[in-house]
UniProtKB/TrEMBL annotation, chain A:
One of its GO terms (cellular component) is ATP-binding cassette (ABC) transporter complex. It comes from Aquabacter spiritensis. This is Amino acid ABC transporter membrane protein 2 (PAAT family). It holds the Pfam family BPD_transp_1. Belongs to the binding-protein-dependent transport system permease family. HisMQ subfamily. GO terms for biological process: amino acid transport. The lineage of its organism: Bacteria, Pseudomonadati, Pseudomonadota, Alphaproteobacteria, Hyphomicrobiales. The keyword Membrane applies. Its main location: membrane. It is found in: Cell inner membrane; Cell membrane. InterPro entries: AA_ABC_transptr_permease_3TM, ArtM/GltK/GlnP/TcyL/YhdX-like, MetI-like, MetI-like_sf. GO terms for molecular function: transmembrane transporter activity. The chain crosses the membrane at residues 39-58, 78-106, 127-145, 257-276.
From TrEMBL, chain B:
It comes from Aquabacter spiritensis. Keywords: Signal, Transport. Belongs to the bacterial solute-binding protein 3 family. Transmembrane segments: none annotated. PANTHER family: ABC TRANSPORTER GLUTAMINE-BINDING PROTEIN GLNH, AMINO ACID ABC TRANSPORTER PERMEASE. SUPFAM superfamilies: Periplasmic binding protein-like II (SSF53850). This is Amino acid ABC transporter substrate-binding protein (PAAT family).
Amino acid sequence: MSAPPPRRLEPSEAGAPLAVLLPFRPPPPAAFAWPRLRLVHLVGIAGLVLVVGGAAHAQASGARLSALEVIWRWLPLLMWGFGFNILMSVLSMALGTAAGLGLGLLQIGENRLLRRVAWAATQFFRNSPWLVLLFFAMFMIPFQFTVFGHTMPLPDWVKAVIGFSLPVMANMSEIVRGAVASLPSGQWEAAESLAFSRRQTMWRIILPQCVKRMLPPWMNLYSLITMATVQASIVGVSEMLTLTSQVHAAEGGRPDLLAPLYGFAMLCFFLYCYPIERFTLYLERRFQLNQ
Amino acid sequence: MKTLLIAAGLALALGAVPAQADVLDSVKKKGVLVVGVKADYKPFGFRDPSGAIVGIEPDLAADVAKRLGVKLELIPVVSSNRIEFLQQGKIDLMIATMSDKPERRKVTLAIDPPYYSDSVNILLSKKAKVAGWDDLKGKVLCGTSGAWYNKEVSAKYGAEVKAFDGSEKPLFALKGGECIGYLYDQTFVQGKLLDTEWNTEFAMPLPGIMEAPWILAVAPGEDAFAKFMTDTTLDWMKTGFILAEEKKWGITPTDYAKRMHDKHKGS
């Protein structure tokens, strides 16, 4: 059995050990890249242009404003409404994340009773329709409350934020629990053998490692809650969808404006949520390789 | 109610702060009147491009605020939350296209006389030779299925009513020439006629029939405010303010508004 003659080494490889003997280094993660335009994107964009522009073209005759002109005229108001959606999504995410972290930690805590209660709360809010939770928040919370003789108004949108933060809290609780459970038990054992207390283990060893595991699902949740904020229109909060229907009414309820106006709302949410989704995907890929 | 009054009287007598202060007083103290109006009902209450709510009802609300000497705050309401807002005290007064129904009178304090009235009317093609409701015999009208007046109109005036779902389909059929007119709520027809798409070929030449009055409402128990609003409404009728508002926003003055003006202008 004669071995083939050894390949002549390239100058750069001279003296280097065989590749298999090198320590394993994961390939560097691909840098975040904007998706390249593919056919599917073109189709989507063309569709939206058709919705917005096509209707405009067909109806531009006579004294009536075309759909694009209508959208342009109402743009400040619609954008104000959209800003409201973003505000509601950010606040409910902040509130829900803080509460969810607490609930999630209770779920994996040592106190049996608290664990049960936290589990029950998580399951309850996670498995209730968001709209039902929103209705509860709208009708159970008073529109103003009095603290030390000062009457503080509680506007509708604040109540909606509370309503949206409930499902965020429950989902966040599960994200925390899942992330902690997904860490290899060796981490706990090693920490214990190094005489870390449970609290120290949790805060110094487990949770820091969980952060990057939790980030992608957390951002996913954010995308979802952003898109869910339009449900606030059902309970009368003046956000983008409410304003869109009011704009439609103010324009005389022309049926040909329905698609362009709602298409515009869709486009705004798409343009906001799609980059978040891409970034989440990137983070997921990146963290997968490093662990 | 009586026990409530007695309790309130006792509370006052004892020098305690009354739990339910008179809305009229609290409005004056706050300096703001909060009125619930529609924001999706052109021309009664709708948005302008700056986001402000404008229309006939916001104008009425502004007039009430002016009479009270306070600032006005408009809150957009929809049919499903307007009564709740009033009961909660979130709005002091409701001017939101609410038709008069017995069950609504139970949960709010309705102001009499009704400030406005919707009725049943026809968005009629200008080519149709119809001068009165009696000319409709044997003619074909489009309608919305489920509207309670379809049957009555066909029984009383002998018109054939072709019913469609919703309000877009009958309008489409009307454009397609399937009927000479669309039988529907007068306020809706008035709203359509603001649009050049409709007002070149169609009109509303007939007087409305089967009136359905709209009521202003305040929270139950606010008798002083209700009295004030009754006086205000009567004054609107006397001065022809509502008629002027209809003209200002470009709709055909309703029979009800004209009649009320005629009735009260001498007083």
